[in-house]
Amino acid sequence: MKLEDFDNDEDKVIQDSFKQKTWNEIRSNDSWGIFKIMSEFVNGYDTMGRIGPCVTIFGSARIKPEDHYYLLAEKIAYKISKAGYGVITGGGPGIMEAGNKGAHLGGGTSVGLNIELPFEQHFNPYIDRDKNLNFDYFFVRKVMFVKYSQGFVVMPGGFGTLDELFEAITLIQTKKIGKFPIILVGSTFWSGLIDWVKAVLLEKEHTISPDDLNLFKIVDSEDEVVEVLDKFYKKYDLSPNF
Q1: In this structure, how many other beta carbons lie within 10 angstroms of the beta carbon of residue 34?
Q2: H or E segment to which residue 231 belongs
Q3: Where exactly are the transmembrane stretches of this chain (predicted)?
Q4: How far apart are CA 73 and CA 95, in angstroms?
Q5: Which domains does the chain have, with CATH numbers?
Q6: What is the 3-state secondary structure (H, E, C) of 163-214?
Q7: Torsion angles phi and psi, residue 107, rounded to 5
Q8: In angstroms, rounded to a whole number, what is the distance separating the alpha carbons of residues 27 and 30?
Q9: How is 68-109 classified by DSSP, letter by letter?
Q10: Which residues lie across from 218 on neighbouring strands?
């Protein structure tokens, strides 16, 4: 079948990936792609390098403002900002909006790393005007999260949240970044996943070590989140933004 024979864009993208391209087309497309990637890294480094100690809050874009976890994320971000830490989110709605809102209300640094998506994602109004970054590439955005965060608060979410969680765990496990705290909020939400990790990955298949279970903590309240962060900072004789 020819490209024009397909009815929807998804099929056209897949079919186009099999299309034979000339060397000039490959060189031209890849070269411009490299420049775009470089520009996102440079802009991200330039902005994020000046924000000071920050904690990233991950979570679903689909959670509504009246939801328990939205309200909890807002409280967590507020307390984090009052404790002197900046807050980074993915910049969109749902849990991300709650995180930026809490930081904004707490008078703290509120950073949004937005991503261009065909649905769900649009930047929220609680991000500091000079700290609202937009990305086309997920991998560049993920670098910004892990490079400039000194802690990760992971609220309930979907595939994207799980991707961000396991990215952080993997980088800490392999010592590519420091052993910053990873805090899972909501024992009811996370218990099934952690039980599977223990039963299958650890005990049955032995694909992780017992120490890997110490790379994260599960909590249920905003006070517990701040307690974990403060304990970490005091251990390494660090101090937040004030």
Answers
A1: 10
A2: helix 222-235
A3: none
A4: 6
A5: 39-235 (3.40.50.450)
A6: HHHHHHHHHHHCCCCCCCCEEEECHHHHHHHHHHHHHHHHHHCCCCCHHHHH
A7: 75, 20
A8: 5
A9: HHHHHHHHHHHHHHHTT-EEEE-SSSTHHHHHHHHHHHTT--
A10: 184
Neighbours of 76 (CB within 10 A): 30
Beta carbons of 183 and 154 less than 8 angstroms apart? yes
Residue 117 gets which letter from DSSP?
Answer: -
Cα 6 to Cα 234: distance, rounded to the nearest angstrom: 59
Number of residues written out for the chain: 242
> pTM of the predicted model, to two decimals?
0.87
Beta carbons of 60 and 158 less than 8 angstroms apart: yes
Angle between helices 68-82 and 222-235 (to 10 degrees): 30
Locate 225 and state its tokens.
Answer: 């989140």
**197-242 pLDDT tens trace:** 999 999 999 999 999 999 999 999 999 999 999 998 887 665 544 3
Quick one: tokens of 132?
């609202």
